[in-house]
Design goal:
Layout (H helix, E strand, L loop, with lengths): L14 E3 L9 E6 L6 H4 L11 E6 L3 E4 L12 E4 L6 H21 L7 E7 L1 H12 L6 E5 L13 H5 L1 E7 L7 H13 L4 E6 L7 H10 L5
Helix pairs in contact: 2-3
């Protein structure tokens, strides 16, 4: 009889930064890419807001694959990455949570005692990853920016301590097919029902990182006590 088993293993994760960690960092950002993207390309969207005091970290999802293009071989196609699929999804979710927890601890330890504010941004599929991380982590996230998608239905908003404690902002373009008005309205109802305050930001455009909006959010910063 066929039986399914699981074996935890160690593997090497890749991430990119806009600079080197140092004691002068006052803001730390994690930016989680979307489906089929790679961290090295995704982080380029954030170079415009990078400063010596603002360190941007782009974790790369653990599953890379060839992005299929009709008529092209793998040698001629881009490589992308995925945070998870429907196959063995619970294991992937737990792996992602452990990965992001470990990366946060590793980066923080490299800041020579600095205690920066922490912003977690997810774009597209990265929204689901960030939301599920905030459901399970003990890391304090000062601000969560959910861009171009909505919180998955399986996230228990009542129990998501880090998500409930963060300053939450949902961002979407007016023509974003992955964050339609109906989807955003349903998310609003869920958040309101669970007593979670959030801000909604929109811009004229589709499924993309808008540089002007990103600049405003960066300039706004995170209020400190």
């Amino acid at each position: 009889m066929r039986r399914e088993h699981h074996l935890p293993v160690s593997r090497t994760a890749r991430y990119f930064t806009t600079g080197d960690p140092h004691a002068g960092v006052r803001e730390l950002w994690f930016v989680c890419h979307g489906y089929g993207q790679l961290a090295g390309r995704f982080i380029r969207h954030f170079e415009s807001i990078a400063t010596p005091e603002r360190l941007i970290v782009a974790p790369e999802a653990l599953s890379r694959f060839y992005v299929e293009v009709p008529g092209k071989t793998h040698a001629d196609t881009h490589v992308g990455a995925s945070w998870m699929t429907r196959e063995d999804r619970l294991s992937d979710i737990e792996d992602n949570v452990e990965y992001l927890d470990a990366l946060y601890a590793y980066v923080l330890a490299s800041l020579d005692g600095a205690s920066p504010t922490f912003t977690a941004l997810g774009f597209s599929q990265g929204v689901a990853t960030v939301a599920r991380w905030l459901e399970r982590t003990n890391v304090h996230v000062d601000r969560a920016l959910l861009w171009g998608s909505t919180i998955p239905a399986d996230v228990d908003l009542a129990a998501a301590r880090a998500l409930r404690a963060t300053r939450l902002t949902a961002i979407a373009g007016t023509a974003d097919e992955h964050a339609t008005p109906d989807m955003l309205a349903a998310q609003n109802a869920r958040l309101t029902t669970n007593g979670i305050a959030y801000e909604r930001v929109s811009f004229n455009g589709s499924h993309r990182i808008d540089r002007e909006v990103l600049g405003r959010l960066a300039a706004e910063g995170v209020p400190t006590a």
